[in-house]
Design a protein that fits this description.
Elements lengths: L1 H16 L4 E5 L5 H13 L9 E5 L4 H4 L4 H5 L6 H10 L6 H6 L7 H6 L5 H4 L14 H22 L5
Parallel strand pairs: 1-2
Helix pairs in contact: 1-2, 5-9
């Protein structure tokens, strides 16, 4: 977390030096500590005067957005499952070993609950193959729809933070 915080802080300060006034963090990594860092850096950078940038985090883990990203995402068992595999099929189909993906069984581990209980890695939550969810049911069409939803939530976050831009 400390390294990520320092990196993001450095990026923000560098962009401020170039005159950037608004910065949006967009993220699809769902590790709780990762999300907390993004939220924290954004809270540390409200617009503070001349030359300072305001940072917002388009947080897709908030309930109002998570519900729009499908049941697997909202339930948390989506690491390399249907949700992420669908996005990859749409964004980088060559990066997916499709025949192998189609043979993977669904794995339910209760990822979010287990992480809240203190599990810190995939073995501890029972995802010993480093995935959970249902990658075999992923589709290009769902991936395209999810990318559209993620773009819409980012635009909505920007509109809420900076209505004067629209």
């Amino acid at each position: 977390p400390g390294t990520l915080w320092a990196f993001l802080e450095d990026v923000v300060l560098s962009l401020e030096q170039d005159g950037i006034q608004q910065i949006v963090f967009v993220n699809v990594h769902l590790e709780p500590e990762h999300i907390e860092v993004l939220r924290g850096v954004a809270l540390d950078h409200p617009r503070r005067g001349e030359g300072a940038a305001q940072v917002i985090f388009a947080d897709n883990t908030r309930r109002r957005w998570a519900e729009r990203l499908g049941g697997e995402f909202a339930g948390g068992d989506c690491h390399a499952g249907r949700y992420e595999s669908s996005i990859l099929l749409a964004a980088d189909p060559e990066g997916v070993r499709d025949e192998e993906r189609r043979r993977l069984p669904e794995v339910s581990v209760g990822l979010l609950a287990r992480m809240k209980e203190g599990a810190s890695n995939f073995r501890e939550v029972g995802a010993d193959r480093a995935y959970c969810g249902d990658p075999a049911s992923a589709s290009l069409e769902e991936g395209e729809a999810l990318i559209e939803q993620l773009a819409e939530l980012t635009v909505a976050s920007v509109r809420e933070a900076w209505p004067e831009l629209f």
